[in-house]
Amino acid sequence: MSVNQQAHTGPPYGQPQPGYQGYQQPAYGGQPLPGVPQSQYGAYNGPMPGYQQPVPPQGYFPSLGFPSKGSPVSLNSDTSSLAPNFIGSLRAPPTSGAPPPASGASLPSGHLAYSQFGHGDVQNGIPASAAPMQRPPASQPFLPGSAPTPASQTSTFQQYGPPAAGVQQLSNHVAGMTIGSTTASAPPPAGLGYGPPTSVPPVSGSFSATGSGLYTPYTASQGPPPTSVSQGLPLAQPPFPSQPISTQRLPTQVPGFAPPPSSTGIGPSSYPPTTGAPRPPSMPGPPLPGQTVAGPPTSQPNHVSSPPPPSTMTGPHPGPPMSGLHGPPPPTHPPQPGYQMQQNGSFGQVRGPQPNYGGAYPGTPNYGSQPGPPPPPKRLDPDSIPSPQLNELPPQQKPRHRIDPDAIPSPIQVIEDDRSNRGAEPFVTGVRGQVPPLVTTNFLVKDQGNASPRYIRCTSYNIPCTSDMAKQSQVPLAAVIKPLATLPPEETLPYLVDHGESGPVRCNRCKAYMCPFMQFIEGGRRFQCCFCSCVTEVPPHYFQHLDHTGKRVDFYDRPELSLGSYEFLATVDYCKNNKFPSPPAFVFMIDVSYNAVKSGLVRLICEELKSLLDYLPREGNMEESAIRVGFVTYNKVLHFYNVKSSLAQPQMMVVSDVADMFVPLLDGFLVNVNESRTVIASLLDQIPEMFADTRETETVFAPVIQAGLEALKAAECAGKLFIFHTSLPIAEAPGKLKNRDDKKLINTDKEKTLFQPQTSFYNNLAKDCVAQGCCVDLFLFPNQYLDVATLGVVTYQTGGSIYKYAYFQLETDQDRFLNDLRRDVQKEVGFDAVMRVRTSTGIRATDFFGAFYMSNTTDVEMAGLDCDKTITVEFKHDDKLSEDSGALLQCALLYTSCAGQRRLRIHNLSLNCCTQLADLYRNCETDTLINYLAKYAYRGVLSSPVKTVRDALINQCAQILACYRKNCASPSSAGQLILPECMKLLPVYLNCVLKSDVLQPGPEVTTDDRAYIRQLVTSMDVAETNVFFYPRLLPLTKADVDSDSLPAAIRNSEERLSKGDIYLLENGLNIVVWVGVNVQQGLIQNLFGVSSFSQISNALSTLPVLENTFSKKVRSIVDMLQVQRSRYMKLIIVKQEDKMEMLFKHFLVEDKSLSGGASYVDFLCHMHKEIRQLLS
Ligand SMILES: [Zn+2]
Questions:
Q1: Which pTM does this prediction carry?
Q2: CA of 426 to the centre of ligand 1 (A)
Q3: Rounded to the nearest whole angstrom, what is the distance from the C-alpha of residue 119 to the centroid of ligand 1?
Q4: CA atoms in the 13 A half-sphere facing the CB of 623
Q5: How far does residue 41's CA lie from ligand 1's centre (Å)?
Q6: Model confidence over 685-704: pLDDT tens digits?
Q7: Cα-to-centroid distance, 900 and ligand 1 (Å)
């Protein structure tokens, strides 16, 4: 498997495809230089006259002097002495000659034309799926001359057959499978059948939107073109004659959700003849995966276009478009309240609501919603699932079979298939309702009118027209939005549009921003809003004629008319108090209590800051950052530092009255790094010395945030506080906390209190911070409980980040901490942000998940929003939608850039709407669904018992799958579990969420860990939740030392491990290297530099640097993974059969967990039962 979860930084996209280069050519305006930091925006329409960069105030209110409560004191003391003093005398004289700050965001002002496509051959609005956007004429600058026919524009609709490599899989598919895939009428697979990426001929010079010319033509040797092959093999059909049964990986009797194990596959014998699915007339040679995917060419591409892996359960909708859909009236599956009917265990009697499924799982007494009855004595095995035949048998006589794990849907297979099917070509966003490739696929995006999936991903790209349908399916409609997402260097950043003093053009009524979906009418004099239908006059300066198709002739010259994502320069009307903002400030606030000093943390932070301050975020074309910095240290009192450039030495001012926090100095607290370089360096040298002998163990916390907030208020700017904190704040002060940890509350109704803050003080403080644009990033270094649930409140509500390093030790943890700190300080961030999501008539945003504050029901406010933060938004119907017009989303984010520029970032997305449930199920994105469900559940634990939350999740998913089964799948035996192709991983992933530390903690998980994880997950994007819940497991000994690729991942189960191998597992927070007991000595020597297994130290936090190919390869894999993640992962070495192995097994999420979580197989059985109950 080659890499790649969605990367956050450049390197993983290390294989720029030559064909894309042309797209970034200068004709687009601005100068998107290759390789520049993402904060650079090409100027769009020349200079930005409307914006005057304010000069940073020189000293804020010098006349205020020092309030009586504080004054400069000697830095040699951390007492509250009031005598002014200069710090030491070691340092150089004042550097008054320092270079002036480069204030002013002077963006490049090129007048280059925005001409992505050239004029003329245009088309109005975003085409519906059936009408792919025309590729621009080949003669245009961005198009390769080699591009074949324009018709192949949306080449995701390739009809080629599968590569030969899929043959073996298909063998399994055919033989083991009772299933087809629901891609029945699903779109032809994107790129199926293309040669491997290496065989893609580079398109010279320019971007080939999706040209079929990119692909290796399908050849006979690769199998027959499957275009005419019906989708989905009828499950009941025997393997094709040419298909040797012996190639099956499935024991014939095994994969049995279907009744009699006597025949091959899952319940084939019970599978009724499928009249709707024409069997492929002939299948020369081994069946090809393409069989399962070829559908009507007009259908939407779907990411699960590949052959189902050896799953025997995916529900097929054999044959073309869901003929069964029209039949049954919409069934309603009311939530099963609590499973009161406690009837369980005995086969054949399970008729009523299934109670206490927990009981069915060994060791999962809390699984069910009712603590009720004791678990049944008998283990639930697959065959115990009632089926018509087996029901007749007494349980004892039933044959006992284990389900073959290879027979159930494999995440690895789905990920691999998507990579090979969709990774080779760019994802072009010109088509409405197109499902993007999976987050685990490395692909490039070309914006043609809809926002990139890096910015917005949806749970479904085809949403039900009516609320009844939506309720019936129970599929949540949600978008996961990452407004400032980092793009790979090959992709174009959003263009900045400046409309001058008049500002962006907006709908008069709903205030939606100009976007590609607005319809110009009356010769271009007015436009009709795509969201509310209101007609608005086009302002004179914005008038443009329409061409014969009704499209503005400047369509392709304006990002806001032709692209899904772009930015507007905001006018003063969009600024607080009608004043352009000052550049933001960063305040570093360092705990200098005993623990922090003794662990070496204080010295480490100060040393790091000396160099890190030169890397503050800046606008791409600016020579230095506009961000000013300030410094505070604290224990139970606060120390402020005057680092004004004219001082010879920094001055300290102590505030010991923490009850009413104020900032004792204004002039000289926030400074420009270059101007005050010498003074700052002197301060950072002296801080560790000053507190070296401290005996103060108590800390305050809320006053620290208040101090930072007051400093920003006084400076009239937004900004970020970086707080480095070590302990529960027990010193007498506002926001003082008690140790209220109590693990006995787990599994009680009071468990929720562990996630709630212990005082509302921090909520109020957070509100004040948001009002000021004061974002709080928190670095925690606890040696014991410090109440993350409470300390994290302000961080969470201000859009900040939280990091935790328990039992921090310099030797093992400093790399991780410093890497996190560097990334956190440098990453792109917007301040004082407000996000609103507008929708077209019929749906509206009703619920929001993430790190933010809301003072009303529509505006998401974030003091800070960085490139990693994600907001999940749920939508509900408030009217009917129409298939013709689809549904539109517009996410508008107003924020202040790191240079102090006020901007609006706009992302637009159009979705399809359907009247058939099958269309919904064909266009779902399970990874996004899991992101939503996890966030929903993690919020639920704040108010409901954890068990209730788990039950609700299970119930909802059972309803989703039951609705599919009832309305979309072809008739089949009730004994079969049939899953929609797009959702076949829903059970395995859902089980991972249910077993996670927040919802089902093991004994080793602390209360702080749970609160921390809860908070992290709430801001995760889809790629992060994907790997967090289902970690990536790589066999290192299989790595090809001669290539850059990663070894193919394997499933997260102990039975996949070999004692002779070394594995690496990562989940976005940790990297665990597991060493089998039988690993060859040579490998151990090469990787760890010791001669035997027993000598490997599991205290290592990094791999030793050794000069051999294996060591280099493994270290390069680790490095590659580290760059892809937003946090530096902790490296842990685990030896097989060592006590630490428990930790590793915790991540093997397909297995039964120590904390009682079900194995994948067991959970699947359980889901099947749930679904059957809903259907009966
Ligand atoms: Zn409107």
A1: 0.72
A2: 32
A3: 28
A4: 7
A5: 28
A6: 999 999 999 999 999 999 99
A7: 29
